[in-house]
Amino acid sequence: MARAAGVSAQTVSRVLNGTGQVSEKTRATVLAVIEAQGYRPNAVGRSLRASRTPMVGVLVADIGNPFYARLHRAIERRLAGSGFSLMLMNCDDDALVERRQLELLRSYRPTGLVVVPSVGSSLSDGDLQAFGHVVSVSRVLEGVHVPAVVTNEREAVGSAVEELVAYGHSEIAMILGPREASTTRAREEGFLAAVARHPRCRGLVRHTDGTRAGAEVAAGEVLDAEVTGVVGFNALVTEGIVSAVLTSGLRCPEDVSVIGFTDAGWMTLHRPAISVIDQPVEEMGALAGQLLLDMASGKSVEPGPRVVPGVLVRRGSVAAPGRGGK
Question: What range(s) does the HTH lacI-type domain occupy (predicted)?
């Protein structure tokens, strides 16, 4: 290529990397030869000479949860055109699998990592140093000092409880995810605090594995306890709640009011559509991608949470209690 352009190999390198002094005429000549020969930079070859590859890992807890598909797409869109490629990895919310996946990722010497820690994760600051620049999303780990992107868990769940109370519900339940997850703890705290503000209310909580199947069982238990309003932990849990309501021969919202957490397409197809705390997944992913780009460019980024608020979207799944209401 250098011979075809009539310049030195060093000049070609400067043009490709955008470094050093090269006249506009020489740059145009080199670029024309590059285009004519169909040259594409070899990222693998470059990585052998660099300390890190132009790769960002995205490790999620459960690829079957639509939240993570939306998150990955949002990160991908923010990094588009930056020169970084993404490697999506799943750990099925298993701390041992998480370790294995990160060990594999580390062998690629990535520039960064966006991670949703698994339930029971034992990751530490020392573990994460190997991945260059790290951002956690949704869940956070105690003792780990990295930038994090979260939503307003407590306040958002509190607004769901207040909505049910405003309609006259006093027997309210929340079907939660795994106890060890930071999101579960925050949402449970928000639920119990909101219920406690209303002395006539009783709040029930049930923990699940965060899946539809687990939620169906837990929802069946609280429906048997005569609750009239239920809040779901995530989209899959909300799906399980709605399924349990139908299986029990009850109606939503005539017999049971339901509010979900994190919107999903099926919620608007239900009749009536399901009210939901709309978690700002796309905004969270975009912010995580931007934080990573900032760090990779040398900007100073402080550790700690960045809160992107969710909002209550009112649809038709909440009404005055129709059975056992007080």
Answer: 1-50
* DSSP 8-state assignment for residue 55: E
Q: ∠ CA 31-36-41 to the nearest 5 degrees? A: 60
Residue 319 lies in a domain: no
Q: Is 126 exposed, middle or buried (0-12, 13-18, 19+ CB in 10 A)?
A: exposed
Prediction pTM value: 0.80
Q: How many residues does the chain have?
A: 326
Residue spans of beta strands (DSSP E) within 129-170 = 133-137, 147-150
β-strand 257-261 against 202-207: which pairing, if any? unpaired
- 50 vs 254 pLDDT, higher one: 254
Q: Would you say 105 and 84 are in contact if contact means Cβ atoms under 8 Å apart? A: no
Distance between CA atoms of residues 176 and 307, nearest Å: 21
* 321 located within any domain: no
Q: Do 228 and 295 lie in a common domain?
A: no
Q: d(Cα 90, Cα 174) in Å, to the nearest integer?
A: 27
| pLDDT over 80 at 216, yes or no | yes
Model confidence at 22: pLDDT above 80: no
Question: Mean pLDDT across the stretch 50-55?
Answer: 80
Asked whether residue 147 falls in the same domain as residue 286, the answer is yes
Report in angstroms the alpha-carbon separations of 107 from 76, 131, 297.
22, 10, 22
Radius of gyration of the chain (CA): 25
Summarize the confidence of residues 64-79 as an average pLDDT. 94
Cα–chain-centroid distance for residue 321?
34
Residue 124 carries which DSSP code? -
Q: How far is CA 177 from CA 99, 204, 233, 234, 247, in A?
A: 22, 14, 6, 8, 21
Number of domains in the chain: 3
Q: What is the CB-side half-sphere exposure of residue 123 using CA atoms within 13 A?
A: 32
